[in-house]
Amino acid sequence: MEKKFKRTTVTSALPYANGPVHIGHLAGVYVPADIYVRYLRLKKEDVIFIGGSDEHGVPITIRAKKEGITPQDVVDRYHTLIKKSFEEFGISFNVYSRTTSKTHHDTASEFFRKLYDKEEFIEKTSMQYYDEEAKTFLADRYITGECPHCHAEGAYGDQCEKCGTSLSPTDLINPKSAISGSQPVMRETKHWYLPLDKHEEWLRQWILEDHKEWRPNVYGQCKSWLDMGLQPRAVSRDLDWGIPVPVEGAEGKVLYVWFDAPIGYISNTKELLPDTWEKWWKDPETRLVHFIGKDNIVFHCIVFPAMLKAEGSYILPDNVPSNEFLNLEGDKISTSRNWAVWLHEYLVDFPGKQDVLRYVLTANAPETKDNDFTWKDFQARNNNELVAVYGNFVNRALQLTKKYFDSVVPAAGELNEYDRETLKEFADVKAEVEKLLDVFKFRDAQKEAMNLARIGNKYLADTEPWKLAKTDMDRVATILHISLQLVANLAIAFEPFLPFSSEKLRKMLNMDSFDWAELGHTDLLPAGHQLGTPELLFEKIEDDVIQAQVDKLLATKKANEAATYKANPIKPTIAFEEFEKLDIRVGTVLECEAVPKMKKLLKFKIADGLENRTIVSGIAQHYKPEELVGKQVLFIANLAPRQFKNGLVSEGMILSAENYDGSLAVTSLLKEVKPGSEVK
Description:
This protein is of the alpha+beta class. The chain has 21 helices and 25 strands. It has four domains: 182 residues, HUPs (Rossmann fold), CATH 3.40.50.620; 72 residues, Methionyl-trna Synthetase, domain 2; 143 residues, Isoleucyl-tRNA Synthetase, Domain 1; 103 residues, CATH 2.40.50.140. Helix 5 packs across helix 9 and helix 6 packs across helix 9.
């Protein structure tokens, strides 16, 4: 029998404060978490939604060093940006705090100290790279070198960005310190470890036997880790940015960010409810639900529960609904490569369209497998679903009521069979949506809500009240009465998914209050109820708006290619005599024109100092003919003539350089010389 809880604590993964939030974060964590919390609130259940910024760790110190500012400056900037973006996007946290707060420092220190005093940690010494110039131990990200797999330079001590292989610092060829550039040495250092192997037996029972209802991706990843056997995991590291390890002899060591970050859920709850926070974390009648991305499954299902169990007074998570990853235009989202749709930029580029992104990310949610976001799909879902289905039905129902009944809800007359069938179709919507939301199937639940709009659209199209208005106003009144009840239901059904649009629709309907329990009712708007002014609920997004976003991504892709450019290897060595066989000369372009029906070719008339010659070159996609007239170019003069299908004969080859992006640049001279001059 399913356990009934008195209250629910919902947490969402703490975004890392070294960059803004992107659509991958939203689809994976924050939109589903917000839908769930709004749903529970609508049902009048006791729930809190905990969020905050994760502000410690090496990447923040690296960014600070790169920008010449302090780590605190970095996290202040991004915490403010992230918090503001979430607020504007409608992510309805009860609290959004940060791990640099005093409350968090105190809470994390106390948590560590309690486990330390209970002897829940083990101490181990290990060899680690040390920078003798900077006088500091080096975190994995502060060590760079040649990747042993793809031999790319600049691979980090934990991963090669070029080939994606996970690495250990000792794997690198010619390791260097990212701080001083010197070659690091190995030194002994002491750290504290959480012995996960000690917790393996109860974790195996708790996850594999007691929580078979967890999503397959979550259950499967946990089982894989458990089957491999759990190993002790360091809870401290040598770093000067973070929460100092609160024991004697631990100078220069801080809590590992994976240990300190999840405690942020607890400290943020303390900030919100300083007097009653414990019931949300320690009462067995509280349900704890973590919303995370798949890269956080092990931390929230194995590591954090082991920490909570070791402490002894906390509840464990009841469910951890983790999504897979969202890709962007067929490529993995990457902060370092700027390959992302950033939330703060979206809010500027698409003002008032928070719900469009919420809808698309939910409709395309990576609940069971990685999914792909494309701007064309974004446009199609807005125009073909939100505008053409939901918005169209609402607008027609309200405009027709305004036209025929001065925006007053008409009374229904006698219902025919089709009316009764239509009413029956949406009577069960509450049970269907709840059944799906209760098991975290947000994509299907939203689809069920959209089906209501499809029912309404079909009902109006089939009954055609605008045609009946000339002969049977009683029938028109009945049709619009039923349509308006459907519209009112849509305002409730979409509230967890599209809160901004639901609020706008309620204003149009003049619905001051509404109750989730009323969803599916057919008497939400009584006869005689005065409606508000109808407006368009959604608007079409034009091609040029979408193209601007696609162009922005293409520019990013080009910039990435330029940044990672590496020249092709040098071809095999040839003898000088081989080179001398080539007769490379300077020619002046007298005429240049496109070749009909051959879009890649340009036809040149070249002055070569002798008799002039015709050369055909495949550079038409890189130059306009008039750009090249009068220019001096280099060409191979003694190449055998080449005949094309159209009869044209090319008497040489113009030399061009191919750039990293495939574009061609004709070679030219720094100063003018006589046509026919030889290149030596």
